[in-house]
Each structure stands twice: as C-alpha cells, then as structure tokens.
Sequence to fold (316 residues):
Amino acid sequence: MNATEEYDVVIVGGGAAGLSAALLLGRARRRVAVVDAGRPRNERATHVHGYLTRDGVSPARLLDRAREEVAGYGVELIQGTAEKVRADRSVILEDGRVLTARQVILASGLRDVLPDVEGADERWGRDFFQCPYCHGWELRDRVLAVLGTAGSSVQQALLVRQFSDNVTLFTHDMEDLDEDARSSLGALGVKVVAGRVEALVSGRDSLSSVRLDNGELHPCEALFYEPAATVDASIVELADCSTSENGCLSTDEHGRTGVDGVWAVGNAADPAAQVIVAAGDAYRVAVAVNAELIVDDVARAKAGSAAGDVLLPESK
Ligand SMILES: Cc1cc2nc3c(=O)[nH]c(=O)nc-3n(C[C@H](O)[C@H](O)[C@H](O)COP(=O)(O)OP(=O)(O)OC[C@H]3O[C@@H](n4cnc5c(N)ncnc54)[C@H](O)[C@@H]3O)c2cc1C
Fold:
C-alpha cells in the first residue's frame, strides 16, 4: 500500500486487544494497519495465566502467535509509535509517516502507576502483582500480603486469602479501617499491620520481606496492590477523547469514544480487562467498527464513489 491510499482501519496498539480487532477485521477483508510500540502492560511478567488454551504462555510468545495469525490475513504490522490521531482520522507516526483511515481503534493499553516504595519497580511482575486471579495460583500457600491503597484493598486482601492462610494487609495509604472491614478480615484470619511500607526487600532475586517506615521487617514472599491507571496522555489529548474516573478513555457500550470514527478497546477503555477480556472486548468492538464501515460503503456506493474497492478488496 502506498502513502496516499486509505486504510479501512488503523489500530493504535498491538497488544491482545489491538491484534484481536485486527484478526476480525483482516478476516473480514478490510485493509488494516496495526501500529505498535511493543510495550504491552504485562511485559514484566513471565507468564500469562487465565487465557483458555494458552494458560502459562509467555506474554511475548502469545503476541508473536497473534502477529503471525493476523499477518496471514494481510494485516500490515508497523513497529512504531503513533504520536497524533487527528480528527480527520489520520494517524501521525513519530517517524513522520501519515496513515489515513476511515476508522481508528485506540488499543494502546494503559500504564500502571507504581507506589513510591523502594524496590517496587524492580519487583513489579515478578513477585509484586496487581491481580490475584492471574498470579494467585502460582503463589498458593506462600507468605502473601496486600499493600493497602484504598477501601477496595480490603476486598483484595479477602481475595488473596483464597490462595494462602498467611495473608497480611499493610494499611499503607488507607484511611482507618472501619469495624466491618476489621471483622471481615479477622473472620478469614487476615492479619492487619498498620503503617507505611517503605521498601520491598529481596534476597537471591526474590521478595523476602517488606520494611515499614518504623524499621520493622515483615516476612513477605509476594505482594499484591491495586495500581492507579493512566492512559497515554498525548493520545487522549490529540484524539480529543475524554477519560473517565478510572483513568481510561470513556466509551459507549459499543466502544465509541466521543470522537466520530475513533474507538477504544482493551485496557485503553477498561483497566480491569485481563488478556482474554481485552481480546474479547476488541472482537466485539471490531464488529461494530465493521458495521459502521458497511454503512459508509453503502453511502459511498450510492454516491458513485469507488466503494467497490472497499466491498470487494483484492484477494490477499
Ligand atoms: C505485571 C502484570 C501481570 C499481568 N498478568 C496477567 C495474566 O497473567 N493474565 C491476564 O489475563 N492479564 C494479565 N495482566 C493484564 C494484561 O497485561 C492486560 O490485560 C493486557 O495487557 C491488556 O491488553 P491491551 O491490548 O489492552 O493492552 P497492552 O497489552 O498494554 O497493549 C497495548 C500496546 O499498545 C502499544 N502502544 C501504546 N501507545 C502506543 C502508541 N502511541 N503508538 C503505538 N503503540 C502504542 C503498547 O506499546 C502495547 O504494545 C497483567 C498485568 C500486569 C501489569
């Protein structure tokens, strides 16, 4: 495809969500490009869990397979970063290339905001995690803990308790626990330690304890935490989309952002979407995007434009 041709869909982000949308649209014989900077949210993790038939695969292997699959349907994979998404649905890459598209899907994921705790960045994805469903099984019966950030940390501690009978909630950033929370945690035997965690302490390349700001050391083999989410601010600003309270892009139930022809899928729209959910969500949104393209195909055909190219693309 040369620089002046129009893609049916340009997808910004080639993680599970972006590639799932690309698979559906490629198989639907649409001209699709995926621009991907290659930094999926779970890149620090060694395994992806909870993805049916792929449980335990490495994140890199899962995406390699996905890229092979979509490439087989003629989807163009472009390594790089999209810097701007304009209102006319052109996507400007950092190397200056301009991709014009009839529809744009933002599948750019999110960034987790890690706590200001020594060792947090080093341990993230190794023995410091956000999701007990993804990593709890592998950590079963170990000495586990939750770093308290909000009221929902109580719920997270109760969930982590399913995986071990040795669970501690460090209150860290939390407000005082109310009586109801204390009695629920007590009922399941979750210990509560009041105080700020200052450092994650590791020995022999695995977490061994957490250190509080009063100097106390508490044994801990894995720590869970609910990070705040942030989406790439430049994408939000330049595509002129709005964000919701959870830090992700606001969409309607079909994945439409407030900008005509710009959609959002996966973690870009939903911080709680795990890999299989992000992929499934993107499939659903891609169907809606294709429906929108069909409406446009009809309008173009009626207007006597070259819509035939779109309805019956050349065999790939
Ligand atoms: C430590 C950790 C472990 C996890 N483990 C699991 C697990 O075991 N099982 C599970 O189901 N989920 C797990 N998750 C959640 C999982 O990472 C997400 O569900 C998944 O990554 C969401 O897919 P996505 O496609 O929406 O976003 P991502 O996978 O983050 O993909 C987004 C892609 O877009 C690219 N991108 C961003 N901005 C641009 C731009 N401007 N231009 C071009 N490309 C761009 C990024 O580089 C990235 O490649 C884990 C998360 C973390 C943090």
